[in-house]
Hints:
Blueprint: H1 11-14, E1 26-27, E2 30-31, H2 32-36, H3 38-57, H4 60-90, H5 92-95, H6 98-119, H7 129-156
Antiparallel strand pairs: 1-2
Helix pairs in contact: 3-4, 3-7, 4-6, 6-7
The structure holds protoporphyrin IX containing FE (HEM).
Amino acid sequence: MKEYSTPLNDPVEERRALHSTESKIAIAGHPLHAMLVAFPIALTFSVLGADLLFWWTGDTFWALAAGWASFGAFLMGVLAGVTGTMELLIVRGIRNRSASWTHFILAVMLLSLLGANWALRIGSPVEAVLPLGLMLSFVAAGMTAMTGWHGGKLVFDYQIGTTPGGNSRS
Ligand code: HEM
């Protein structure tokens, strides 16, 4: 096996400042982003569920429910995105991890899908469902699963947004 004369350098390991990823957009240490993301995730899947129920039953109630849920998903997604982006820009350790930027790119693509799925339904929530609304809802739900899974990876695998060493339990 080839021997390296100089050791390989890991800039993240070398510079202490890169290690601090503690959330700053938080209430009493609890990150706002983590609190908000539950809403776009739940509402995006609600839109898909309501679209499928409209397709199945033909009851316009479900198309109207999907229209309102798509508005909520986009609105809450933007709010979650604003808090996430503030963390990304303010906290140096978060900004320095490439995984944070991967999450940002996934999230921005998701937000444009959520915006499109809502915009399509404005003024014609019933006509918009089949087929384009339902197709967009499927893609948005898949994208939400990917973005949410990746967000969890940031926190649980890379400890991004967490307090090093934890806090005391008192
Ligand atoms: C638009 C820009 C976004 C940025 C820059 C961003 C950034 C971040 C960051 C830095 C974290 C680490 C925890 C923290 O510091 O709060 C995180 C976690 C997470 N993000 Fe995002 N995010 C964005 C949008 C979204 C959206 C739209 C979703 C919804 C699917 C999402 C889902 C998650 C989840 C599920 C976590 C893990 C939360 C936890 O379990 O503590 N993010 N995000």
